[in-house]
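Our preliminary data section would be incomplete without showing what the modeling component actually yields. Below, a chain of 243 amino acids is followed by its predicted structure, encoded as tokens that our downstream tools consume directly.
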Amino acid sequence: MLIVNADDLGRLPLATDRILACHAQGRVSSTSAMVFMEDSERAAELALTAGIDVGLHLNFSERFTATTVPAQLREAHDRLCRFLTASKYALLVYHPLLRGRFRTVFAAQYAEFKRLYRREPSHWDGHQHLHLASNLLLENLIPAGVKVRRSFSFRPGEKSLINRCYRGAVDRRLARRHRLTDYFFALSQHLAPSALERVAQLAKGANVELMNHPQIENEHAFLLGEEFGRAVSGVRLAGYDAL
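Predicted structure:
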């Protein structure tokens, strides 16, 4: 099974409109929604009408852009954004003094998702993959038993040994509490037909997620193009609800 998951629903109108247009064309099978953003309210109504699987795209790195965010929540979120964007290694650091803020911001996004979509998320992931930040992992903030995006999958030799060992440790921890796909790839790294065909072949015998961002021009064009259609024509496309 191949889950073609579009990130950033609700982040801005362009992202929302392109994601839902790709879903209508059968090229996107699920999406991950951001809350407290400028298009979050409209996106929820459109997604409910479209009947697309929607997960929660946890945001700890980009400032909330909705005008109705409570001041205390905005302050807590801004503090986390400053911490997690200060270095590309910040997600590896457990910050004990920010425990309360992580819990507050996490709980607020979870509650807002349920208010907007009137259901539990079909799956959980994070903007810039920060659902894998140490404070979230070590505090077990994401509920047990739910479907969560794993770390990127790489072929042998693509990344350093340290990198692969770290990602393996994260995935093993996730797998003890959550349900994962067998593989996870980014469309941005598979825009060549031969690369995408390798993903499609894996999806014939395993559960694979292919992350994409239709607001990015080349990804949007490729999703709607003939080459993408040919590559996935023999594969079952489904949303996270089918996992």
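The first strand starts at residue 2 and ends at 9. The chain has nine helices and six strands. Preliminary results of this kind motivate Aim 1 of the renewal.
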